[in-house]
Amino acid sequence: EKENSTIAHEMIHAIVCNSLKVNYLQVPIWLNEGLASQADSKNKYVSNFNNVNIDKLLLNDKYPKNNNENLLYYGIHQRLIEIWIQKNGKGIVTRWIDFINRQKKHPKEAFFTLGGEDAINTLLNKYRRRAS
After folding, report:
1. Cα(27)–Cα(113) distance, rounded to whole angstroms?
2. S-S: 88 plus which of 35, 39, 92, 118, CB 3.0-4.6 Å?
3. CA angle 39, 40, 42 (to 5 degrees)
4. What are residue 48's phi and psi, to 5 degrees?
5. pTM of the full structure
6. What distance, in Å, lies between the first and last C-alpha atoms of the chain?
7. Residue 94 burial (CB < 10 Å; 0-12/13-18/19+)?
8. Average pLDDT over residues 27-40
């Protein structure tokens, strides 16, 4: 199952970049990994964000060097994209791709235009409630 999850994860990277007609590096890492992580097991990443500086990891375009933070990085962005999809419907990823291709917008700008800021605020509010 782990191999299938990894293959699906990596294929999503390729599908996203191919659909957007961009180089892998043109999609912010956090957004690319958040999308690809939707193929992964929900238990694969650490989901307990207590005692973590979420602001340091959220929307960071560099992979953390620490393995525990790396797992959290994936987990936070997996959860962010989950919330984005829940709030905007399953077709949001397709609408995001179409918007980028039609409007010639950067993937990050398109994410924020199509409800990304609301998803970020929801994630941060859930995190802060848990941490308090």
Report:
1. 15
2. 92
3. 120
4. -90, 105
5. 0.86
6. 36
7. exposed
8. 91
Amino acid at 43: N
Say how many CA atoms lie within 13 Å of 107 toward its Cβ: 22
Residue 120, token pair as written in the block: 């970020």
Write out pLDDT tens, residues 67-89: 778 888 888 899 899 999 999 99
131 has a pLDDT exceeding 80: no
Taking the C-alpha atoms of residue 7 and residue 26, their distance in angstroms, rounded to an integer, is 21
